[in-house]
Write a structure and sequence with these properties.
Strand order of the largest sheet: 1-2
Oligomer: single chain
Shape: flat
Distance between the termini: 26 Å
Structural class: mainly alpha
Largest sheet: 2 strands, antiparallel
Number of strands: 2
Length: about 190
Amino acid sequence: MGRMTDAPARWTEATVHPDMWADPDTDPRNNDGPAPDGELATLVDVLTNYRLTLRMKCEGLDAEQLARRSVPPSTMSLLGLVRHLAEAERDWRNWITEGEPLPKLYGRRDGDFDGAVGDPAVVEAAYADLEREQAATDAALDGHADLGARLGKDGIAVRELLVHRVEEYARHCGHADLLRECVDGRVGQ
């Protein structure tokens, strides 16, 4: 690993628009079909695209690169973001259930970032955790088409939870942009 002052050369795979991550014709987030119909479908579509964006920002990197910290003293890394969002998905389920909360995936506070080390097994486990937790939270919300319905001990509205999920992924995709550029110089929307 180079010194913090050694900046990688900026680059993109896009050939049509040099400020994009991928060309529009190969970007898996592009949908040539009609826009989603209704608020719920729109929120789910936006969330799906942010989830895909996070994965795209991590593609093509090895375990060490995914675990690389941005700037000290920050513990943030792309792998840490994957683990953090798995933890967040689990926590959101705790918001909408009446029972005992599920335990934290990675133990103590900040275990999601602190435990994000450059080990291929840790990377594989993080992606498996994220997929499992996303699917479980999606399933817990699937039966609640009324966005005004209030769930859990604190009565959070389904709409509020969905918007919060979009916000959390969007914010961390912004972090992922900067982290990826620090790792290998790749830029784009």
